[in-house]
Amino acid sequence: MAEFFTRLNALKLGWRFLSPGSLGRNPVAPASQRFYSIDHPSFGLLFDIDGVLVRGRTLIPAAKQCFRNLVDRNGKYKVPVVFVTNAGNCVRQTKAEQLSHLLEVEVSPDQVMLSHSPLKIFSQLHDKCVLVSGQGPILEVANNLGFQNVLTVDMLRESYPLLDVVDHNRRPTNSVSSTNNLPPIEAVILFGEPIRWETNLQLIVDVLLTNGKPGNAVTTLQYPHIPVLACNMDLLWVAEAKNPRFGHGMFLVCLESIYKKITGRELKYDALIGKPSVVTYNYAELLVRQQAENLGWTSPVERLYAIGDNPMADIYGANLYNRYLKASHRARAQMQAQGGGHPREERVEVAGHEMAVGDSYGDERLPVGCSSILVCTGVYNRDQQDLPPDPHQAVEQRIFHGHRDFRFDPNLTQPSFVVQDVREAVELVFQQEGCPLD
Predict the structure, then answer these.
(1) 240 Cβ partners below 8 Å, 6+ apart?
(2) How far is CA 1 from CA 5, 7, 290, in A?
């Protein structure tokens, strides 16, 4: 586990955007070019959940048969499997139990990665007083991630009831005084979309404008504001409805717009976590590595396949991570060419800042690449939209659903493969790898 967190700490800045570079349409070599010296495959699978395996609480029919084929007679997985979701309204144990019930195969919490999972590495905030926004057991989630001094929006509202007055039925009916026994808030953590957007938007903005002391009057604007960390940037997601629903990314759009409208300044994030950020896929790869070790594999996982339904989250993120992997291997090859000396660091842009990809990132066990597979059972639907054959075609006419801090690179939205559903996706992967699935 020490190596697990060491490498993740090195990637804290990898949450935004890597500059455009060459990105092959098929970053994984054909199976005919591979020669195995071991008696098992050398790849792992990353599954999105919503729109790939389920729609809301309804299992997508192809998913159950798919997972029956992925385990042997004893229920043991044939290859490492990790579920990477931008959902964050529960703990990993709960999500694993839900998946086990729906898929009728055993899913361990160690196979589940929620949007907020990488917050474990932000230890510098774990002893700070943080305000958390979202729904579900957010106190339990925050404590499990290491945060020790947590306030929820509801707790803040109870202490300052006069701050929440949009809903007339929730306004205080009698004269009340604010409770001033809360410590100053030192950071804001956004786990996912809340239930009462107007309450959360109002109180979060209050916290930002007052430097963490929402009971105080705003006199001067302190900028930059206190740290803000956000998980799950999905603008849209799919449930049982025929059309996509608002995701946490839509809440972030509202928060950013309100803050800029009031202050004239841009809301700044100390971290954006969840797909499509690089740190999320790096974390997922380490979970794949752990699963491979549990399966008894002694050689590295050479390739990853990420299966998703959202071009701007799953596909963009997998391709971005593939680009990161290529840069890491180039840096390591340079180091070896120099006789093991310190390599000239390769510089890649991270949202206006440069990030070094050198020997600390050149883990020889990193996968060679990550292929993206787009299914048509979720956000992406062939009947409603189609990917242009030329990724540069009519870019100005394409609507960008990604987060504000991720520059639109049309290459990154182009999947390695497009298939109908998750069963077809897994069959394709095993065919590409030249491995029998049954």
Answers:
(1) 55, 56, 57, 58
(2) 6, 10, 10
